[in-house]
Write a structure and sequence with these properties.
Layout (H helix, E strand, L loop, with lengths): L3 E2 L9 H26 L6 E3 L5 E3 L16 H8 L3 E8 L3 E8 L5 E4 L1 H4 L6 E6 L5 E10 L4 E6 L20 E6 L7 E16 L6 E8 L11 E3 L5 E8 L14 E5 H14 L4 E3 L2 E3 L8 E6 L4 H5 L6 E5 L2 E2 L3 H8 L7 E8 L2 E8 L1 E3 L4
C-alpha cells in the first residue's frame, strides 16, 4: 500500500477530502433547517418570535457532556490508545507521502512500515505528528525491507506506549480496530473482524519486496493507514497495517474490505533488533526455489552449502510440502512461512524425494542484512 501523498501544509485537519465532505453536510443541514422552519410555523410548540414576526421552534437537545464509554467498547479502547498513534510525514528530495505509526517505548521509539520511511532513504525530512497536534522531527533508526518494517526515533520522553498483544492468539471472527491517518486524516478509527490468518501476501517492488504472513481484516484500511496498529478487543496491538487489495486499474487504490497486517510477533522481534543494533535478521531456510514448479509444494532448486537445509540433508529436486503444522502450496508460501519464525528456531520439514515422503528437523538461519 503506497503512502498517501504528502499534504501541502503540515497542520492537522481533515484536508481536501474532509473540506469537501464538511461543506456538503453543512449545505444539507442549512437546507434542512430552512425547510423544517416552513413546516413548523403555526404549530406553536416551544417557539420563539423573530424580528420578522415568524416563529422558530426550539428543539430539545442534550448538553455537551459525552456519555461515559462502556468498558471494552470501541470508544473506551480508542480513548486509551489514540495518544500512542502518530502520523508520519515523509518529504524526500523529489517526492513525499504520509503514513502512520505507533509508540513502542516511552523514550521515543516508534514503529511503522519501511515503505513509509523509504521516501527519505536518499535524504529528506521525517515529521512525526502526535494526537495533540505537536510536530516533532524524526530520524530512522533502522529498517527491514523483507518484513516491511522500520523504527524511527523522536527526541521526546514520557510518551504513552501501546500494549503489544500476541498475534498467535488471533482467531477468525475476532473483533479488531484499525487506527491511522488515511489520506492524511489523522486519528481515523475503523473497526471490523479478523477475516483470515496466515494469508500469503507479497508487496513492494524488486528492491523492496516484502513477504507477509498476514492477518486479513475487513476493517477499512486506505493509503496512509500504513504503519498504524491493528488492535484486538482488549486494545492490544496484534498487527501493523501494511497492505490492501484493490480493484483499481488507474493507480488509485482504496478500501474494498481486504486489508492486511503484519503479525505483531514478527514485528516485535524485528523492532527489538533494530532498536538494539540498527539492523535485524531475516529468517531463511537455506535454499533457492524453482518458481516455475507448477505442482503443489515448493521445489528446491539449489541448497546453500553449509546452510540450514544442507545440514538437515535436503537436496536439489526435493519438494517441500509442509513446514511445522503448515501445508506449503508453492514457493511463495514457503518463504512467508519461514519468515514467520525467528532465526535459530527448529522446525520440522516434510518433503518429497523421488515420490517418497521424508521428514527432517531444520534449524533456521538468516539472510545477510540488507536493511
Amino acid at each position: 500500500m503506497s503512502p498517501s501523498p504528502v499534504p501541502q501544509h503540515k497542520h492537522r485537519g481533515p484536508g481536501a477530502f474532509g473540506v469537501v465532505v464538511i461543506a456538503a453536510v453543512t449545505a444539507l443541514v442549512v437546507g434542512g433547517v430552512a425547510g423544517l422552519g416552513g413546516y413548523l410555523v403555526g404549530r406553536g410548540v416551544d417557539s420563539v418570535a423573530t424580528d420578522a414576526g415568524s416563529v422558530v421552534q426550539v428543539l430539545p437537545q442534550s448538553d455537551a457532556q459525552a456519555p461515559a464509554a462502556e468498558p471494552g467498547s470501541i470508544g473506551q479502547i480508542v480513548q486509551k490508545v489514540l495518544p500512542s498513534v502518530v502520523s508520519i510525514i515523509a518529504e524526500g528530495k523529489t517526492t513525499g507521502g504520509s503514513g502512520s505509526g505507533f509508540v513502542l517505548r516511552p523514550d521515543g521509539y516508534i514503529l511503522t512500515n519501511n515503505h513509509v520511511v523509504s521516501l527519505v532513504k536518499d535524504g529528506g525530512d521525517l515529521t512525526v505528528v502526535f494526537s495533540d497536534g505537536q510536530e516533532v522531527p524524526g530520524k530512522v533508526v533502522g529498517t527491514n525491507t523483507s518484513y516491511d518494517l522500520a523504527v524511527i526515533k523522536v527526541d521526546r520522553t514520557g510518551l504513552p506506549a501501546v500494549t503489544l498483544g500476541n498475534s498467535k492468539a488471533a482467531r477468525v471472527g475476532d473483533a479488531v480496530i484499525a487506527i491511522g491517518a488515511p489520506l492524511g486524516l489523522d486519528g481515523t478509527v475503523t473497526s471490523g473482524i479478523v477475516s483470515a490468518i496466515d494469508r500469503v501476501v507479497t508487496a513492494g517492488g524488486t528492491d523492496d519486496l516484502s513477504y507477509i504472513n498476514a492477518i486479513q481484516t475487513d476493517a477499512a484500511i486506505n493509503p496512509g493507514n500504513s504503519g498504524g496498529p491493528l488492535l484486538d478487543a482488549a486494545g492490544r496491538v496484534i498487527g501493523i497495517n501494511s497492505a490492501i487489495a484493490s480493484l483499481a486499474t488507474n493507480g488509485e487504490t482504496g478500501n474494498i474490505g481486504l486489508g492486511f497486517s503484519i503479525p505483531v510477533n514478527s514485528a516485535k522481534r524485528i523492532a527489538e533488533e533494530l532498536i538494539a543494533t540498527g539492523v535485524s535478521k531475516t529468517t531463511a531456510i537455506g535454499v533457492s526455489l524453482d518458481t516455475g514448479y507448477a505442482d503443489r509444494g515448493a521445489k528446491v532448486r539449489e541448497v546453500t552449502a553449509g546452510g540450514p537445509s544442507d545440514s538437515a540433508g535436503l537436496k536439489p529436486g526435493d519438494v517441500i510440502t509442509k513446514l511445522g503444522d503448515r501445508l506449503i502450496g508453492d514457493s511463495t508460501e514457503l518463504v512467508v512461512a519461514v519468515r514467520s519464525y525467528a532465526p535459530g528456531d527448529e522446525v520440522e520439514v516434510e518433503y518429497q524425494r523421488s515420490g517418497r515422503k521424508q521428514v527432517a528437523k531444520v534449524t533456521l538461519g538468516s539472510l545477510p542484512d540488507k536493511g
